[in-house]
Amino acid sequence: MKVSEVMSTPLVTIDPDADLQEAAKVMKEHKIRRLAVVRENTLHGVLTAADVSRNLEKYLDNERRNILRYLWMPQYYSRES
Which residues contact residue 35 at a Cβ distance below 8 angstroms, ignoring those fewer than 6 apart? Predict the structure, then answer.
């Protein structure tokens, strides 16, 4: 049996500079657990659901800290941000 007979198609990809939340959204929309990271037809790697899970928590923690900083010290943030 050939790989081409059992592989998933079409290949769902994401750009290396995409936001982690966007990657999670793409995975959810396509019901996949792995996402090819591609730019200009070059494979840069594979992002897994485990990668997203491990790192999204850190990302969200940073966002929470930014929100709390804004709430505690709004004078340091412009309204356009």
Answer: 12, 13, 14, 23, 26, 27, 46, 47, 48
